[in-house]
Structure formats: structure tokens, C-alpha cells
From TrEMBL:
Source species taxonomy: Eukaryota, Viridiplantae, Streptophyta, Embryophyta, Tracheophyta
Organism annotation: Chenopodium quinoa
Membrane topology type: Single-pass type I membrane protein
UniProt keywords, alphabetically: Leucine-rich repeat, Membrane, Repeat, Signal, Transmembrane, Transmembrane helix
Name by which UniProt lists this protein: Protein kinase domain-containing protein
Pfam families listed in its UniProt record: LRR_1, PK_Tyr_Ser-Thr
Signal sequence annotation: 1-29
InterPro entries noted in UniProt: Kinase-like_dom_sf, Leu-rich_rpt, LRR_dom_sf, LRR_Rcpt-Like_S/T_Kinase, Prot_kinase_dom, Ser-Thr/Tyr_kinase_cat_dom
Amino acid sequence: MAHTRKHTASVVFGLRCLLILLSSHGIYGTATDILCLKRIYNSFKDPNGYLNVTWNFNNKTEGAICRFNGIECWHPDESRVLNIKLADMGLEGQFPLGIENCTSLTGLDLSGNNLNGSLPTNISKYIEFVTELDLSNNDFSGPIPENLANCSYLNGLHLDHNQFSGQIPLEFGTLSRINSFSVANNNLTGPVPKFRFSISKDSYANNPGLCGEVLSSCPSQSKIHPGVIAGGAAGGLTLIIILTGIAFFYISKMKIIRRKVLDPEGNRWAKSMKGTKAVKVSMFEKTVSKMSLEDLMKATNSFSNYNMIGSGRMGAMYKATMSDGTILTVKRLQDSQRTEKEFMSEMNTLGSVKHQNLVPLLGYCVAKKERFLVYKYMANGNLFNWLHPSDPEEAKSLEWPVRLKIAIGAAKGLAWMHHNCNPRILHRNISSKCILLDEEFDPRLSDFGLARLMNPIDTHLSTFVNGEFGDFGYVAPEYARTLVATPKGDVFSFGTVLLELITGEKPTKVSNAPETFKGSLVEWIALLSENNDLHSAIDKSLLDKGVDNELSQFLKVACNCVSPTPKERPTMFEVYQLLRAIGENYHFTAEDEIMIATETSDAGFPSELIVAQE
Ligand SMILES: *[C@@H]1O[C@H](CO)[C@@H](O)[C@H](O)[C@H]1NC(C)=O
Ligand SMILES: *[C@@H]1O[C@H](CO)[C@@H](O)[C@H](O)[C@H]1NC(C)=O
Ligand SMILES: *[C@@H]1O[C@H](CO)[C@@H](O)[C@H](O)[C@H]1NC(C)=O
Ligand SMILES: *[C@@H]1O[C@H](CO)[C@@H](O)[C@H](O)[C@H]1NC(C)=O
Ligand SMILES: *[C@@H]1O[C@H](CO)[C@@H](O)[C@H](O)[C@H]1NC(C)=O
Ligand SMILES: *[C@@H]1O[C@H](CO)[C@@H](O)[C@H](O)[C@H]1NC(C)=O
Ligand SMILES: *[C@@H]1O[C@H](CO)[C@@H](O)[C@H](O)[C@H]1NC(C)=O
């Protein structure tokens, strides 16, 4: 146990480091990332016109660059570039120096183009946080810069099929995270580095004079003992853990069939799905018509970015219009650490979880490394977009009764997951973005149960990063200390959603607070509460309509949910009952919808899901 705690402490420390690292560089991403892409665009010749159709810099909407061909953002509505994937586009030019302005970049794939010239000797300054660098199949020449060894987050480095000459820097042996390296088909000589993973000879094939390690030993006079690795070993657990986390963001590169593709709108990874199109989508309901991956591809225009309706830490969601006119939502999961068997078993569990306030999972599909989930389509999108539209006037269209109905329904769904489902399901990712709204504005939770499909550490890390770091957004404070997901953690996140509903403010940025206030919505509420001024937090458009009493009660429930002490927070069952009482006069819950908490203790539940009581 002591050991575990120490381990956890390191994880937290590691996360903090990363947050500081990324936030100091990334949080003001917008202007600089746009400049980055402009500079890259201007520095390349694009004879096949892959970029000029979608790379439209006149669209000033936040997140417009995320629809550019080959660009993946941290969040689709935020112009902060996560990965640049411009493989096989016939681009001409040199290594794009503009990349230095993409300050949150974690992956760069320029493979299969006609880029030439040498790499900058200070290349690590340009791609400091990159975990995957693929420059293979180009005409780069000159030495491989030893400064690349300073890109300490690198997992994969692919420089094969170029004209690099000279020696491979032995410092690469200090890269603690690297697990894939290739320099085949270049003009390299001399000893090869001693890596910590077992590298195949093929990674060095077709070079005129490489030797050492897995290759034949070097001529004695040039024998260099690679003692360099000792220093790097001190990097320690912390670093390794950070790196493990970062690795998550790299959507592992699939073997791209090197073929020119002409539809600039379809996604490149989707093209590589050729040969798997006949794969059947497994449906949970026999009544739903049979479909194959090909149908899904057709329905989403090959998972075109134009069909993307959202994306989060679990993966991107696409609107799929089937040939019979039915509309579905298809979620493409981010790299899951689970085996196919574990995935299937998890799917069959989730497929049987049914409640009127959860988005129905209709089916799933596994093809090569890709995993897709098929959900019912929710016509009114997510709550976040209703509460925080780009035009603030629109937000007012969500009247109080509708907000209350949404709160009650969502609380009911979550309470059901916590108290009526055996084994209990923790959501772990509650936010206004995962509360979807149907035609009637009845709320349905999405993304439940998916956190378990991911690697636990990675999932936490991405919570921090995606959840807009600095103040942790929806994440309960004890989560950062313990990294244990608990029902009370869900209650905290849900409380944040309640605060969003009643204040109309975003969880991380409070527009009504004084300029000097830099904290989160929860912190702002705490401050107002200290000053006995909670009432001023309420969305002005809701006041003076005869419901002020309901508003005060609602705000009180929200405040209890976000109490810093988990013990002081109500259970989801209690939250549901409290909200239901506030909304009694509206008769939202007509039928016999009284929920009974079937279990009140943690007895009988798998230890993984048990709350660590403070
Ligand atoms: C782009 O990067 C250069 C070099 O680091 C820097 O001087 C410039 O300020 C950056 N531009 C923006 C808009 O951040
Ligand atoms: C894009 O580039 C291609 C090839 O250079 C050209 O034929 C096409 O007209 C360009 N389209 C636009 C919108 O600029
Ligand atoms: C600008 O980008 C936004 C977000 O990507 C998109 O919804 C909108 O349609 C675009 N506008 C134009 C004129 O292309
Ligand atoms: C790079 O290729 C272009 C033609 O695509 C050529 O004009 C230029 O001289 C090449 N530069 C180098 C450094 O080889
Ligand atoms: C890399 O070095 C060159 C000169 O050697 C310098 O002009 C450039 O600013 C440096 N780039 C960065 C990102 O530090
Ligand atoms: C890495 O960076 C450090 C300091 O930032 C510098 O002293 C060192 O020379 C760099 N290493 C390489 C291989 O460029
Ligand atoms: C290979 O590298 C050597 C120097 O290391 C150079 O003399 C030779 O021209 C290079 N060959 C090619 C094809 O680039």
C-alpha cells in the first residue's frame, strides 16, 4: 500500500509537470497555431491540391483549422493543433520551420512526400513535445541532427527512405521512451545507438556502412562503447509515467498503403481501411437492420471531418446518414489499451445497459486497429453547445424549466448507473458535453463506461489536458491526489454541470467575474459563497420570473455537489431526489418513476469500483 501511494504521488507529480509544461506553451494556442499552419502552407508546394481546398484561412471561427485536411486538434472547437498528418500528398519543399508556432504539437507525419534539404540542427526547438515523428519516404539529406535526442518524448522516429548521410547520433540511446526507430534506405555509416528496446536489423537495412549492436561488430579502432545510456536512466518513474501518458495522444500509426488518394475530404486513416469494409457491425438489437463497415463509411463520407460532430478524449464522433435516411452517431475510439477480447466483453456489458437517460449503444465494430461504436443520434446535440453558443443571445433560448428538466433527467441517469446497476458503473467523465439532448430536450448521458476501455493512467492524463488544465475544470480535487475514480468524483463533476446550468458560465472561464479572477467556476462560486453573495452568480436571464426560490434551492444542491470534501457531497440518488423535489410542480416525471436506491453501501462490489473513503 505504501508503495502504491508513493507511486500515485509520482503520477500526480508527473501530471503537474506536464500540465505546467504544456500550459505554459499551449494554452494560448489559437493565434500561434493558425500562424503555424499558414507558415507551413506557404512553405510547401502542393501540386496535387490536397491542401488548398480545406486549408481556408479566411474562416475565423475558433476551431476552423481543425477541419483542415491532415490536422487534428486537441478539441474540435479550439484552434490548438495536436497532430499534423500530411502523408502521401506529393508536397514539395523543405522541413517546415513554421512548425515552431504549433506549440502543443504531439505528432508530425510528413512521410511519402518530396521534401528535401537538411533538417535544422536545432530541430528539438521546433518539435519539443512530439511523440511521433515520421519523415520517411522523402528526399531529406545531410546529417541526422543529434539534437533530435533532445526530443525526449519521442516514441517513434522514422527517417527511412531518405538520403541522410553520416552517422546516427549515439545519443538516441538516451531516449527513454522510444520503441520504434527506422533509418533503412539512407546513406548512413558508423556504429548504431544502443536502444533500450529490441530493434530489428531491418530498421537499418540498405545503408552503406552501419555496424554494432544487432549488426555485425564495428571495426575495432572505431569501437565506441555506448556508455551514454547510463545518464538517461536516471530519468525516473515520473518521466516514464508522463511519457506513457503522452504516448496515448499518438494515434498509433497504421501502415499506410502508399497510394495517392484523391478525395481530400475523406480521412486518411479511413482510406487505409480498405479490405475491411465487409466487416460486419455487431448490433445488440436484432430488429436493427444489418450493416457493415462499408455502410458506415458511406454514411460518414469516409469519416470526413465535415461529418465530425464532436470529439473528446474518447475519440471523435461522426454523424452517419444511412442510405435509408436513418441517422446514427458513430464514435471512433481513441487507441484503447484493451485486447479485442476484453473490448468485446466490455461491449456486451455496455450493450445491455439500458435506461431512458442514457444514449443507447446500438452496436460496435472492430476492424484492424480501429474500434467503432454505433449510437442512436441525438437531434439536439450536447448541452455544452446550448449553454455556451458562440452567439451569447442563443443561450437564453434555454428556459428555466428546460434546464431543470435536463438536470433532473441527467441526475436520474447517473443515479441509476451508481445505484441500480450491478456492478455499479462510474461515468468518470461527466461534463455538459457528454449530456446529449433528444428532440424533446430530454437529456441522455453518453460516454459512460468508456473510461474503462482506456489505459487508466492515460485516461486521467487526458482528463487533465482535455479538461483545460490549470484548474482541472470538472475534475474533483481529490482525484488529483488519489487518481481513484469514485462515485463522489462523478457527483463533483455533475455539480459543475449544475453550476453551468444555473450560471450560464463555462466551468473554466467565468465571464461575469472580475478580470483579475483567474479561477474556475467552482472556485468563483466558493468565493461568492464566502462573501455571502451567491445570488449574484445566477444567470440574469432566469431571474425575476417567479422561480427565484427554485433557483436558490438548485444553486444550493449544486454547491453541495462541489464541496471539496467528498464525504460532504450528497450521493447521486440524493441529488436526484433533491432536484426532483425542486421540479415537482412541472410534472416532468409523470409515471411511476420513483427510483429506489437498491444499495447504499459498497458491499458486494468489485474492489476496483469501491470508493476510497476519506
Ligand atoms: C512564432 O514563433 C516565433 C519563433 O519562436 C516567435 O518569435 C513568434 O512570436 C511566434 N508567433 C506567434 C504568433 O506566436
Ligand atoms: C488547388 O490546386 C489545384 C492544383 O494546383 C488546382 O487545380 C485547383 O484549382 C486549386 N483549387 C483552389 C480552390 O485553389
Ligand atoms: C467556418 O468554420 C466553422 C467551424 O469549422 C464551420 O462551421 C463554418 O461552416 C465555416 N464557415 C465557412 C464560411 O466555411
Ligand atoms: C529540392 O527540390 C527542388 C525541386 O523540387 C529543387 O529545385 C531544389 O534544388 C532541391 N533542393 C535541394 C537542397 O536539394
Ligand atoms: C535555430 O537556429 C537558427 C540558426 O542556427 C536560428 O535562426 C533559429 O531561430 C533557431 N530556431 C529556434 C526555434 O530556436
Ligand atoms: C539538449 O539540450 C541541452 C540544454 O537545453 C543542451 O545543453 C544539449 O546540448 C542538447 N543536446 C543535444 C544533443 O542537442
Ligand atoms: C553518401 O555519403 C557520402 C559521405 O558520407 C557521400 O560522399 C556520398 O556522395 C553520399 N551518396 C549519396 C548517394 O548521397
